[in-house]
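Thread: quick sanity check before group meeting

JM: Hey all, I'm pulling together slides for Thursday and realized we never actually wrote out the predicted structure for the chain we discussed last week. Dropping the sequence here so it's in one place. If anyone has concerns about the input, flag it before I start.
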Amino acid sequence: MAVEEQAEAASETATPAADIRLESVTKRFDDVVAVDELSLEIPHGSFFALLGPSGCGKTTTLRMIGGFEEPTAGTIYLGDRDVTGLPPYKRDVNTVFQSYALFPHLTIFDNVAFGLRRRGVKGGELNERVSEALGLVALTGLERRKPRQLSGGQQQRVALARALVNRPRVLLLDEPLGALDLKLRKQMQLELKRIQHEVGITFVHVTHDQEEAMTMADAIAVMSAGKIDQLGTPTELYESPRTPFVAGFLGISNLLAGTLEGEGAVRLSDGTAVRVPAAAGRSGDVSIGIRPEKVRLGGQEENRLAGEVRESAYIGVSTQYVVDTRAGAVTLYVQNAEAGAPSVRPGDQVTLSWSPEATFVVESQEEKEA
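JM (edit): ok, ran it. Output follows.
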């Protein structure tokens, strides 16, 4: 009896299998390696983003998960099931594309019901599930309209409802907001996040838009040249990037070349010594990074650099400055919190300062580019 109780307790505390697992997945198109021995686990119920520039392999990875492309090598699991080689209709996934791919001759109800009818769902259950899906995306009452009678944002919601109505294990989102205007895109980012929390299904979202990924995702894999440069939460990636690529791709970073001098100290190229958090596993030539909003005008913080203002641009909530220092150009944002606050002009000599805790250390840019 005690053994049974222990087994029961162990099963209750066991970590559930990842919804998606990729093991050494590679995809080649002739001589081009689009995805290069990529291994990845995506936990159940997460909102996961594959982020990167065009050609980094993110869309190819998504298409392999969905069954639209076959890997050249490696294995793809959905839960504990090996789905490598299975066509899309035999995988428990649905995909929402940027183009929506709605049937123009069908009503909104029939568009959403299409997949259910192919599975033999009918009558009251069909009506109930379609109504539930349309309610989830706030389109109740529009069942009899045709896609051409809806706005772009509403059509995107129909595509989402059609994908969710089948209750897939995983929902794949291939740049789904790319066709929307900026205001609607921002609105739909919050809507998608709400819907994912409500349904609890694993969402995997491909995008090149850093702000979009950071707004919606619990975890982000930043991809470059078919590999994952860094995987983490939006906060981890922004505050503690591990490579110059990640530092530059997620927002603006000031990267200044230097050399590590003992634990927690870097000497910049102009000879200035600055304090940094412990740079675990790094030695020799490095680059330090500081986000523009963490740089101060004036010498109130421990790390300091003198320079001359080259450019200033008023952008409403803040003013952006570019300051030339002997260690390199530094961009900073100064909040316009008070009316008539004093400002500096191009040609002014200034002191910049920032906290050691606001500094991150990455490999040398020159080394990375070599």
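AS: nice. The chain has two domains: 15-236, 252-369. Residues 290 and 358 are 6 Å apart (CA to CA).
JM: adding both to the slides.
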